[in-house]
């Protein structure tokens, strides 16, 4: 059901108004119908009361002008009030209590004494009195309207009298013009209200849609080029202006961060390089090796920090890439170093990615799998519009309550900061940032058979 509903604000608002209007008009139609029904019943009751009180000779004319009940069409002609000693209620017929109560109320208001009152309804062809009158006039005998019609029969017996006065009126028929007017009114309201609201909503939602696209572009590129001109209602114009100001502030902060990190990288790497030269003069070889490893650890950590900072502002564009070939290249690098890494055959999947960054993410995840999980098995699959690069290991895994924190910077399962035992704890953080840079995510979970499973889930369409 949900897939058939509109997803945009414009569509949902129009649908809500259209449904609300439809419900309101449906309620209005029901109320109008009930009012017309009550009016028709009251008219029929008045006609019966008039006959029972005045006892006139009824002369219904056959014409297309409104009759005594405001209806058009053929009517009975010269149908007299019946005076009979038998009850007007035939065997098997049901009394109409509502019509009896209404007729009783009218008769009592006219001061008519009521011994017994009976009201029922029956088809014309089931009423012997009417059939006998119709047979007297041959021109009515073939009239199908008469034969198929219904009538209301009311019998009144006054106190102390054994005679019944029986009156008849046609069963009131609904007037289709009332419902037709409601339908025309509904169509007019839809054209005016929903159409006008659609134009107004378009004026509001068009700038919002443009702002959404701008947000998506800025989240990907972090550049202020192409900012929107404020448009639409005043509130929307203020929102766009505030967003433009926020973009400028964020871009300025990112620029300052890049300058600061560049300065830190330069200021730290230069003395580290000089230090690396100076330790060559240390006579103790073991001490010299320890110092060299420390410098390499600091340099590697610094590279990781700078890489993590650069992930947020990539300079290279997305390119359609064969992920299977990319995974094979990365696995080949580990195989050249005799690392226990296996690539499982899978389908051919292409996605728009930044190949350099994605290689970095895969190296980090495969390296972790080899380091902590003894060996790595790499596989590629596609789930709808999502490509999944899966890396499984056979290690001890990660406690379930620590998986989320392992994606944070400088968090490691092993407490040291030695690169031989795992580095500075930025590998998973960088891999997660690269996945998010591509509009995807990094998911870690323990395998039921043991070991950790890391999945890079990337969209195949942008």
UniProtKB/TrEMBL annotation:
GO terms for cellular component: plasma membrane. Pfam families: HATPase_c. Its EC number is 2.7.13.3. Keywords: ATP-binding, Cell inner membrane, Cell membrane, Kinase, Membrane, Nucleotide-binding, Phosphoprotein, Transferase, Transmembrane, Transmembrane helix, Two-component regulatory system. It is a multi-pass membrane protein. It comes from the Bacteria. It is found in: Cell inner membrane. The keyword Kinase applies. Residues 263-462 form the Histidine kinase domain. Residues 202-255 form the HAMP domain. The keyword Cell inner membrane applies. The chain crosses the membrane at residues 182-201. One of its GO terms (molecular function) is ATP binding. It catalyses: ATP + protein L-histidine = ADP + protein N-phospho-L-histidine. This is histidine kinase. It comes from Croceibacterium salegens.
């Amino acid at each position: 059901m949900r897939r058939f509903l509109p997803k945009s604000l414009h569509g949902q608002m129009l649908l809500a108004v259209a449904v609300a209007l439809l419900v309101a008009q449906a309620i209005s139609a029901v109320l109008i119908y009930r009012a017309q029904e009550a009016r028709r019943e009251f008219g029929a009751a008045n006609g019966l009361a008039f006959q029972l009180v005045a006892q006139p000779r009824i002369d219904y004319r056959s014409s297309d002008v409104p009759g005594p009940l405001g209806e058009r069409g053929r009517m009975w002609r010269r149908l007299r009030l019946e005076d009979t000693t038998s009850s007007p209620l035939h065997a098997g017929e049901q009394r109409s209590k509502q019509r009896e109560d209404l007729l009783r109320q009218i008769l009592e208001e006219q001061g008519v004494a009521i011994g017994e009152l009976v009201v029922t309804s029956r088809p014309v062809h089931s009423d012997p009195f009417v059939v006998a009158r119709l047979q007297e006039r041959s021109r009515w005998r073939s009239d199908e309207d008469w034969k198929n019609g219904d009538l209301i029969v009311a019998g009144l017996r006054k106190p102390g009298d054994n005679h019944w006065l029986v009156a008849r009126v046609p069963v009131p028929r609904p007037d289709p013009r009332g419902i037709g007017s409601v339908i025309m009114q509904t169509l007019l309201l839809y054209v005016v209200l929903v159409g006008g609201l659609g134009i107004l909503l378009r004026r509001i939602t068009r700038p919002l849609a443009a702002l959404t696209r701008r947000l998506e572009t800025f989240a990907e590129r972090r550049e202020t080029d192409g900012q929107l001109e404020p448009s639409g209602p005043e509130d929307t114009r203020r929102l766009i202006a505030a967003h433009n100001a926020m973009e400028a502030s964020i871009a300025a902060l990112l620029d300052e961060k890049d300058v600061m990190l560049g300065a830190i990288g330069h200021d730290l790497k230069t003395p580290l390089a000089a230090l690396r030269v100076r330790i060559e003069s240390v006579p103790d070889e073991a001490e010299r090796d320890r110092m060299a490893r420390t410098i390499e650890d600091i340099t590697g950590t610094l590279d990781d920090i700078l890489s993590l900072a650069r992930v947020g502002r990539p300079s290279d564009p997305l390119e359609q890439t064969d992920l299977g070939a990319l995974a094979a290249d990365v696995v080949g690098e580990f195989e050249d170093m005799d690392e226990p890494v296996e690539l499982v055959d899978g389908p051919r999947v292409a996605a728009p990615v930044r190949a350099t960054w994605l290689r970095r993410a895969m190296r980090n995840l495969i390296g972790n799998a080899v380091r902590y999980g003894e060996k790595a098995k790499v596989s590629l699959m596609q789930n709808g519009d999502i490509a999944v690069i899966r890396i499984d290991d056979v290690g001890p895994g990660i406690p379930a309550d620590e998986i989320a924190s392992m994606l944070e910077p400088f968090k490691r399962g092993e407490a040291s900061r030695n690169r031989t035992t795992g580095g500075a704890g930025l590998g998973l953080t960088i891999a997660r940032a690269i996945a998010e840079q591509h509009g995807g995510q990094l998911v870690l979970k323990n395998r039921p058979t043991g070991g950790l499973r890391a999945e890079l889930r990337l969209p195949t369409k942008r």
